[in-house]
Write a structure and sequence with these properties.
The structure holds 2 protein chains of 2 kinds. Chain A is mainly alpha-helical. Chain A is built from 12 helices and no strands. By secondary structure, chain B is an alpha+beta fold. Chain B has 8 helices and 20 strands. The chains are: A mainly alpha, B alpha+beta.
């Protein structure tokens, strides 16, 4: 928990750096911060087309409207994957800061997690509109279970941040992390019930595999709350708490172990 | 007097990064929390080797030494960026390290926003930065560009903004690593004035610089680092003299080696005329009837290449004749590295009539006081006939540096003083007779 305390102590600097990240991201582009909205929307359009129309299996309309289902799982996934990809590179990208100034390095992956979290939140209007349309069309979505959303988000934050912190430090000493991670994330994406529901996996062993995926409980919880309009089950909450705790603990442990060597290795 | 910085037995090793060593590195980092634990010294780079010294509060302390002597590692360890492998570093008070200015500047966002980020990185709360913002901008002199993205700044502007922020963090101990060299003259002066103010306020300065003049001007004491070891600590004059002497000795050796090489080549070409150097510029020419074997510079009875302006100096030429000569002139020319001739003379101008030269001669040009301005100088030596046809002319056969108590520009440095009468006076006129 030492890492958490250090991050908290530098919260002012953290806020400044997150603001820097957000400002710098779209500086000079015409749409600016609107890209946070447009990017996931375009991705959503592509996925809905490919998996909702091209690959649509007969009898799979159990998940309908499919676009809404996709949104609830896809947007949190984008948060995770972009945070891990960016966060794992954050120490190397800011090596000047670490080598030339006394700087709490754990802030950098944390900034990735928070900045991407903000992008995630900014894409929320799309989700809200999608839910509203679904409701208007008579689907039972957007009920009181949606209140679980901020709780799931808060639980997911330490998971994402912890992993980013650990990977960022590991990446400094072990540069293969970057490529391993990129491939692993692609694999994980298809092993997460984002495009499909867990029940749709025909083979039981494969289903267990998907269930072991640490991202799965969060995805399911989001889908329960926003799509199926059910308060996530206690076991799901328990799973999320455990995964978050383990990821945070593992990430900060790795970081603390590697901390003193970062300046020399980066 | 209490110590602002106290360093004891400080050793810092770096791991040699061999390719394919990564898994071992990772293992060592994960299990030992160190990249160098359990490494033999031969497997590591010893950046600092048992360095000990203290800097008193309010002192300006300089560190000089060649590249790779450990100066910057030392500074980074004092700053707390690097962890010592062994030994102890204690710093009392708030530290600001000007190692790289503008660390954390983001190229895409404006100077104004970067001031806030850089300030936060250096540990200033937002409110404090807001309070000092105007002063920072004024100091940087970048008011007109402050809304521009930093990527459009010149490297000088970048450094100015970085220095402006760093100096406004109000540190007790300021660590400066060669950062003042980048800005223009006017800004460098402003920085130095600011550092002087800072020292006057009783704060501590640790300055690493290759500009020996700057170190000499500023520092109360100087440490000379050599291959990770502290070689000498003491008054600036003494340490810098010793350091310059060592550098000159090394260069002298290099000269001697180069000379031997040249002589070897001369042996092959036999006529000895127009020996080109690898650089392509002719450094030595002549018929070879007589040869200058060496040039030494002597001061207070020993061979020295570091002189004080106004000191008695002897230029000694060792010349060998290849055949008996009755027509010969010895000459010496002193010029700056840029080729401006400062002073030259020869035995003909000295109205000495040649009689006989057969064998080896030792020619001494004795100057009672060499009043050259502080700087670096090259010596040419020549032996030629009275009509000017050269037997052996050697350009830049020796070099030396001159320092002076006071500063001055130009080439000539006469003994001088300032006097003032009437309705003006110097600060501290009574105590200080210049």
């Amino acid at each position: 928990m030492l890492t958490a305390r250090r991050i908290f102590r530098h919260r002012g600097l953290l806020a400044t750096l997150v603001a820097r990240e957000l400002k710098a991201r779209y500086r000079g582009s015409f749409l600016g911060l609107l890209w946070s909205l447009v990017n996931p929307l375009l991705l959503l359009a592509v996925y809905s087309f490919v998996f909702g129309l091209v690959f649509a299996r007969p009898g799979s309309d159990a998940i309908s409207p499919y676009a809404l289902f996709l949104v609830t799982g896809l947007f949190p996934w984008i948060w995770v994957s972009s945070t891990l990809l960016e966060g794992s590179m954050s120490l190397i990208a800011n090596s000047g800061l670490i080598r030339k100034a006394v700087f709490p390095a754990e802030l950098l992956p944390t900034v990735s997690a928070l900045a991407n979290g903000v992008h995630f939140l900014m894409a929320m209007p799309i989700l809200a509109i999608a839910v509203a349309i679904g409701r208007f069309q008579g689907y039972s979505v957007g009920g009181w279970a949606a209140l679980a959303f901020p709780l799931i988000l808060l639980l997911q934050l330490p998971m994402v941040t912890g992993l980013a912190i650990g990977l960022s430090a590991l990446n400094v000493v072990f540069k293969d992390v970057r490529d391993l991670l990129a491939n692993l994330l692609t694999l994980l994406f298809f092993l997460t019930p984002i495009l499909y529901t867990l029940e749709a996996i025909p083979y039981r062993p494969l289903r267990i595999f998907a269930q072991l995926n640490p991202i799965t409980p969060y995805t399911q919880a989001y889908q329960q709350a926003l799509f199926f309009d059910r308060w996530p089950a206690p076991t799901l909450w328990l799973q999320m708490v455990v995964v978050s705790w383990v990821c945070w603990w593992l990430g900060s442990w790795l970081f603390v172990r590697l901390k003193d060597t970062l300046v020399e290795a980066v | 007097m209490s110590d602002a910085i106290h360093i004891e037995g400080l050793t810092k090793l770096f791991r040699r990064m061999a390719p394919g060593d990564h898994l071992r590195t990772l293992k060592s980092a994960l299990l030992e929390g160190s990249l160098t634990a359990g490494l033999a010294r031969s497997e590591a780079i010893v950046a600092l080797d048992e360095v000990s010294f203290s800097v008193h509060r309010g002192e300006a302390f300089g560190i000089v030494g060649g590249n790779g002597s450990g100066k910057s590692t030392l500074l980074k360890t004092v700053a707390g960026i690097l962890k010592p492998t062994q030994g102890r570093v204690a710093v009392d008070g708030r530290v600001a390290a000007l190692i790289e200015l503008g660390a954390g500047f983001h190229p895409e966002i404006s100077g104004r926003e970067n001031i806030f980020i850089n300030g936060a990185v250096l540990g200033l709360p937002k409110k404090e930065i807001e309070r000092r913002y105007d002063s920072i901008v004024e100091f940087s002199g970048l008011a007109d560009f402050i809304e521009e993205p930093v990527k459009n700044y010149s490297s000088g502007m970048y450094v100015r903004l970085g220095f402006a922020v760093a100096i406004h963090t109000d540190p007790d101990v300021l660590l400066v690593d060669e950062v003042l060299a980048v800005g223009d003259e006017a800004f460098a002066h402003r920085c130095l004035a600011r550092i002087e103010e800072f020292l006057a306020a009783g704060k501590t300065l640790l300055l690493v610089s290759h500009s020996l003049g700057l170190v000499e001007d500023f520092c109360d004491r100087v440490l000379w680092m050599d291959q990770g070891r502290s070689r000498l600590v003491g008054s600036p004059r003494r340490v810098i003299d010793a350091y310059r002497q060592a550098v000159a000795d090394e260069e002298g050796e290099a000269h001697r080696d180069a000379k031997q090489q040249a002589d070897l080549e001369a042996g092959k070409t036999e006529t000895g005329a127009n020996l080109p150097t690898p650089g392509g510029r002719v450094r030595r020419w002549g018929s070879g009837k007589a040869r200058i074997e060496g040039v030494r510079i002597l001061a207070s009875g020993e061979e020295r290449y570091h002189l004080r302006s106004g000191e008695p100096v002897v230029f000694e030429l060792i010349v060998q004749s290849a055949e008996p000569l009755t027509d010969f002139v010895f000459g010496v020319m002193i010029s700056t590295p840029r080729g401006i001739e400062c002073w030259g003379t020869n035995t003909d101008l000295g109205e000495l009539k040649p009689k006989n030269f057969n064998g080896t001669a030792r020619v001494r040009l004795v100057c009672a006081a060499l009043r050259l301005a502080p700087g670096e100088y090259f010596v040419d030596a020549a032996v030629h006939a009275r009509d000017g046809s050269p037997y052996d002319y050697r350009k830049g056969v020796a070099s030396f540096t001159v320092t002076a108590q006071q500063r001055g520009v130009g080439l000539y440095f006469p003994e001088h003083s300032w006097q003032l009468t009437g309705d003006a006076s110097w600060d501290g006129q009574d105590e200080e007779a210049p």
